[in-house]
Amino acid sequence: MNTLKKRAPLLLALALALSLCACGGKADPAPTGVPAEPQETQEPAETAETPEDTPEETPDETQDASAPAAVPEPEPEPEPEPEPEPLPAGPPTYTFENGVLTCSGGGEVNARGSGPESWIPVVQNAIFSTNRSEAMAAVEKVVVEEGITSIAYHALDHLENLKEVTLPDTLTSIGPSSFSQSGLTSIRIPDSVTEIDKGAFDGCKNLSSVTLPIGLTQIGDSMFSSCESLTGIQIPDGVTTIGSWAFSGTSLTELTLPSGLTEIGFEFIASTPITRIEIPASVENMDGALSEAFNLTEIVLHGELSLQAIEGTALKGLMQNAKQNNTGLTIYGPSGGVVEGWTNKQISESYPNCKFIAND
């Protein structure tokens, strides 16, 4: 009896739970002292991805190890350069329009013509003038076109109103007195020219600008003599010879001589304003080179000269001029050599206003 009483509450709870389960209800919390059974929490199932939801990966062709390596195409062989066409043999043709004389074709420009008509200038024929003086005065510009290789002796001289000349890269030589006594004011000689003969620009009083070709090796006699407007010029490094009177009568105030120069002609800077000249050590012959260069007050000799060379240089004449005009003359040269000995002897005997200074 006592046991039944003890189990009564438990049986009552069990009956109540069974009743709730049968009715679909929820059980009340367990009474005090009865532990509640833990309930398992069910995780939501993962949703499987369908093939449509998954983006397809595009294979990277550049990283496909199975693909064969690209073989570079061979570079095309360079085509052989075409051989230059032969230059026209000439003779040139001449046309004239609006003051411009054009020389076309090939060969040698020779405005005086040749053969039995050598005294009838071609320029006169190009202008269709019966008056030679009027025809030559009409030319203001000369255009020598590609194909021409040379300009002959006296070819374009005495064109008094000529101002400008255009020369081609096919030109290789300029003959004697070719532009002499013309009104030319400037000229650029192409680097193809290797020879400019004597007197080419002699007496061009208006010539003030000259560009010489880099391959030039010789400046001929009287090339720029009496070019009164010429105040400056650059001599190419390859020039080894400067002829007599090459720059006499110009307005040059200075002149730089190339280091490989070996020969200087008679009176090459006579009657110019040049006051200082440096003679390279390479010069071997300069007979009378400084004659009539009476504005010189300084002469710099970078090499030793023989007694014969000194006597021929006209140094004594310059000393005499310095004494007469009381201007003075300084000669620079190697110490202890022939130049110093000769100069000091002249100074002690006759020219006290001159002096020698060693430059080594």
Walk me through this protein's architecture.
- With 360 residues, this protein is an alpha/beta fold.
- The protein is 18% helix and 16% strand.
- It has six helices and 17 strands.
- Helix 6 links the parallel strand 16 (329-333) and strand 17 (354-358).
Describe the structure in brief.
The chain is an alpha/beta fold and 360 residues long. Helix content is 18%, strand content 16%.
Keywords, please?
360 residues; alpha/beta; four-stranded parallel β-sheet; 6 helices; 16% strand
Q: How would you classify the quaternary structure?
A: single chain
Mean pLDDT: 83
What overall geometry do the principal axes of the alpha carbons give?
flat
Largest sheet: 4 strands, mixed
Report the sheet-strand fraction: 15-25%
Q: Given the helix and strand composition, which structural class is it? A: alpha/beta
Q: Approximately how much helix is present in the residues?
A: 10-25%
Rounded radius of gyration (Å): 52 Å
Q: Say how many strands there are.
A: 17
The strand order across the widest sheet is: 1-2-4-6
First CA to last CA: what distance? Answer: 150 Å
Give the ordered list of helices and strands: HEEEHHEEEEEEEEEEEEHHEHE
Which residue ranges are poorly predicted, with pLDDT under 50 across at least 5 consecutive positions? 25-38, 47-51
SSE map:
Blueprint: H1 2-23, E1 93-97, E2 100-104, E3 107-109, H2 122-127, H3 132-137, E4 141-144, E5 148-151, E6 164-166, E7 173-174, E8 186-188, E9 195-196, E10 209-211, E11 218-219, E12 241-242, E13 263-264, E14 276-279, E15 298-301, H4 307-312, H5 315-325, E16 329-333, H6 338-349, E17 354-358
Parallel strand pairs: 2-4, 3-5, 4-6, 5-7, 7-9, 8-10, 11-12, 12-13, 14-15, 15-16, 16-17
Antiparallel strand pairs: 1-2
